[in-house]
Amino acid sequence: MPHKKGDPMDMQQTSRTQSPQIAATSETAEMALIMRLSGEAFGLPVPMVNEIIDPIQITRVPNASAFAPGLINVRGAVVPLLDLRHRLRMAPAAPGATARIVVVETTIKDTPTRLAFLADAVEEVIDVELGKLEPVPKLGAPWPDTYVLGVLRHTKGLVVLLNASTLFQPEPSPTANA
Fold first, then answer.
1. Which one, of 35, 58, 36, lies nearest residue 48 by Cα?
2. Of 12, 16, 90, 128, whose CB has the highest number of CB atoms within 10 Å?
3. pLDDT string in tens for the chain (178-residue length)
4. What's domain 8-16+34-167's architecture?
């Protein structure tokens, strides 16, 4: 069944040769997947999104960090499930009827890695004009600067464009400096 333009499933037909990182300094256009967390709209570069699936059973990992508390089985592969709410300093919330798991491919320590996270909803794919990206105001923005590239004006309101190169990196180990 064909998907209409803007449908999140349309991303499967998007070229994987595009850069998985939306660079804030570029004047070019990229495509971003728009998703919701606690009512806020966030965007991620489409080329890094591998698939979007319905919520499945999560295996909690004892003594795991709050950022990566569990694992899921995605088509026979064990994939870490990240908690973006924790990373973005948002309150925890139970998944609702529109919740989806977004599976992404990124590079961690020079190794291609598949990760997943739970979103309250996945809405659409949009074209992003990077030249129109605005900085996040320092006053009132709850998200750490390192995880946000900027804000876009979209027909449905503001979209916070996430920095994929920092967002999915592991937290430093508490024993790393010891």
1. 35
2. 128
3. 333 444 444 443 333 333 344 444 445 678 999 999 999 999 999 999 999 999 999 999 999 999 999 999 999 999 999 999 999 999 999 999 999 999 999 999 899 999 999 999 999 999 998 888 998 887 777 889 899 999 999 988 999 999 999 999 987 666 555 4
4. Beta Barrel (2.40)
The rounded distance, in Å, linking the Cα atoms of 105 and 15 is 14
User: Domain extents for the chain?
Assistant: 8-16+34-167
Pairing of strands 157-162, 40-45: parallel
Of 65, 55, 126, whose CA–CA distance to 93 is shortest? 55
Q: 13 is written with which tokens?
A: 């037909």
